[in-house]
Design a protein that fits this description.
Elements: H1 9-16, H2 30-38, E1 46-50, H3 57-63, E2 68-73, H4 76-86, E3 93-97, E4 109-115, H5 124-137, E5 138-149, E6 156-157, E7 160-161, H6 167-174, E8 178-189, E9 195-205
Parallel strand pairs: 1-2, 1-4, 2-3, 4-5
Antiparallel strand pairs: 5-9, 6-7, 8-9
The structure holds S-adenosylmethionine (SAM).
Length: 207
């Protein structure tokens, strides 16, 4: 089995750059919070933030009283940055250093959140492995929120090629077990003011 972050790309990114200087940084993860609210996830839901990096989403959810939170990322320094920022509150969160394409979820979550991770899986086998984890990791009727670069979004992120999606093509990737509830565009502003087109989708896990 490969180790998380074999080539060290993501570990290096988080060692080299303060979290608030990367292109995907958001001070407040408004699009994610809005989506969770809109599709009925609440503080009593369990949630995994897949490829959560050093995102402030976990801070915002803790502040709203969420109690069953897991953040998974391939890069240990990303999670260390979040733990450092949260201080004692970090003990309320489960932290997993893992490659999502190798990870076997030990349990199911009511909500699966992925902002800007799935689009890095440019090989069909990687996406198949992600789907396996997703299928094992989400409750029946559970909510899946995935944000990728949109068809008119950047072709690369962090120096890596990405696969861009619209709601139809993302739904086709997830397959029959996940019903598309809605898809919508978002324009993200990077810390230096560049605009990036995102495609957000919400799915329900169905039998
Ligand atoms: C563009 S960043 C987005 C981070 C976070 N979701 C956010 O919105 O701030 C992509 C993240 O995915 C993580 N990542 C990339 N490939 C991964 C994989 N195969 N398994 C788990 N995490 C991965 C990276 O370490 C990085 O933190």
């Amino acid at each position: 089995m490969t180790q998380p972050d074999d080539d060290g790309h993501w570990t290096h990114v988080y060692e080299a750059k303060p979290p608030n200087t990367v292109s995907w940084y958001q001070e407040t993860p408004e699009p994610s919070l809005r989506a969770l609210d809109r599709f009925g996830a609440s503080a009593t839901s369990s949630l995994i933030d897949v490829g959560g990096g050093a995102s402030n989403l976990v801070d915002a959810l803790l502040a709203r009283g969420w109690q069953d939170l897991t953040v998974l990322d391939i890069a240990a320094p990303a999670l260390e940055a979040s733990k450092g920022r949260l201080g004692a509150m970090a003990d309320k969160v489960r932290w997993e250093v893992a490659d999502i394409t190798n990870w076997r979820p030990p349990r199911k979550f009511d909500a699966w959140h992925d902002r800007a991770v799935f689009h890095f899986l440019t090989e069909p086998e990687q996406r198949e492995a992600y789907r396996t984890a997703l299928s094992r990791g989400v409750t029946d009727g559970g909510l899946v929120i995935i944000a990728t670069f949109a068809l008119d979004g950047p072709e690369k992120c962090s120096g890596l090629p990405v696969q861009r999606y619209d709601p139809v093509s993302l739904a086709a990737e997830l397959g029959d077990g996940f019903q598309l509830i809605d898809g919508w565009p978002e324009e993200h502003a990077t810390p230096w003011g560049a605009r990036q087109s995102f495609n957000w989708c919400a799915f329900r896990r169905i039998d």
